[in-house]
Design goal:
There is one protein chain. The protein is an alpha/beta fold and 385 residues long. The protein has one domain. It is built from 14 helices and 14 strands. The strands form 4 sheets. Strands 7-6-14-12-13-11-10 form a 7-stranded mixed β-sheet. Strands 1-2-3 form a 3-stranded antiparallel β-sheet, covered by helices on one side. A two-stranded antiparallel ribbon has the order 4-5. α8 crosses α9. It is globular.
């Protein structure tokens, strides 16, 4: 009798969840929070026999009944007990501030924060030489080339990081190398300089997102303007308008948007109101965005950037009559022949050191690693360069 009962319970455990799920699936959370296409049911054909087991396993993993409920429950327990989540490289800090502490080849935010990945003298010399070569090559074509590094959120708001994650030494990788590059006359700048100045009085990064908010991107744009043109608009001369409550890409990665949604969005008013910048018709090239404005500056700007470049679009186009924004994945050297480029802003977030270390390869279009690495990063960043 006990054996039959055990067998019955075992069978019920197998068929119960999917059957019950079919009845209630319209009333439970089935949203795809992973920013990727979920696995489809395997193709049942003789020429696909060897792939069917693996494809079917992937399908089951992606479409398991009550998956979001159990992932959310597991994440709640992990974040509350340990301050980390196994579903994504995210650290939960004080007051539920979320930090993208990825630890991977070419993208190591945790080591950046802990100051344990400083460049050696030889590595600094190699990077210096690479940047120098690009600056000189561009100058020969009459183009000014600038490198700007956006800080990781935890470098600005480290006070919210868990005390259990220790920092070793007074300087981060960028804190150490950028002054050395500037001493050699290279146009390399740390955008943390402008953010730190206001980070206590204003929130400059999103609480639940990997990116800076519009206040932070405004400050970054004005540091860029100061470097390039020698003038900028002070924060005190524009109006910051609080908006609705919002969540972010990391909350989505954790499947906890319903729990983490009390951040505040902002808009900026009063920035160069005498100048109008408008987005051109969508480009036939995905990832390329063009703006035209009535700025008195007749020059053309090319911005080559990771996802941190997008939030600069409300500001930089007002400084040029033509501004072209390209993601790293969409970038092609042909942009220089398509547009009469005068200035180049090359921008990546601190953790994307692969783009900082390979500037000539990226600019010349020979860095083969971009496509695969950016696609992998996009799964985490978009929501997470």
């Amino acid at each position: 009798m006990k054996q039959k009962l055990f067998i019955a319970l075992f069978i019920l455990s197998l068929i119960g969840p999917p059957v019950s799920f079919m009845l209630v699936k319209d009333f439970v959370d089935t949203e795809n929070y992973e920013n990727r296409t979920l696995a489809s049911f395997p193709r049942l054909a003789w020429d696909n026999v060897e792939q069917i087991p693996g494809e079917f396993e992937a399908f089951l993993n992606d479409h398991a009944p009550y998956k979001n409920f159990f992932v959310n429950l597991n994440t709640r327990l992990e974040t509350r007990l340990f301050g980390v989540a196994s579903v994504a490289p995210i650290t939960v800090g004080t007051d539920n501030w979320l930090f993208y502490t990825v630890d991977a080849e070419g993208e190591d935010a945790l080591s950046d924060y802990q100051h344990v990945n400083l460049y050696t003298t030889d590595e600094q010399e190699e990077i210096s030489g690479k940047i120098q070569s690009v600056v000189e090559e561009m100058a020969e074509q009459g183009i000014r080339f600038y490198v700007f590094e956006a800080p990781n959120k935890e470098r600005i708001y480290g006070k919210y990081m868990p005390k259990s994650i220790h920092v070793y030494g007074p300087k981060s990788r960028l804190d150490a190398i950028i002054p050395e590059l500037q001493n050699k006359g290279l146009p390399v700048y740390d955008l943390a300089d402008s953010l730190r100045k206001y980070a206590e009085d204003y929130q400059v990064f999103c609480k639940y997102d990997t990116h800076w908010n519009l206040v932070g991107s405004f400050l970054a744009s004005q540091q860029i303007s100061q470097v390039v043109f020698g003038n900028s608009v002070p924060l005190e001369e524009i109006t910051i308008v609080p908006g609705d409550e919002t969540s972010g890409d990391m909350a989505s990665m954790l499947n906890m948007v319903n729990e983490f949604h009390d951040d505040v969005s902002f808009s900026i008013e009063g920035y160069l109101p005498e100048i109008t910048a408008e987005k051109a018709e969508p480009s036939e090239h995905e990832g390329i965005t063009v703006f035209h404005s009535d700025s008195p500056n007749e020059q053309t700007l090319l911005v080559i950037a990771d996802s941190f470049g997008e939030a600069l679009m409300p500001f930089l186009p007002k400084l040029y009559q033509t501004a072209v924004f390209s993601t790293f994945t969409s970038y092609t050297p042909e942009l220089f022949s398509w547009y009469d480029v005068d200035d180049v802003i090359y921008l990546n977030v601190e953790r994307n050191q692969r783009y900082f270390e390979r500037i000539p390869e990226v600019v010349n279009g020979t860095y083969a690693g971009i496509a695969g690495e950016e696609e992998s990063a996009a799964v985490l960043e978009s929501g997470l360069e």
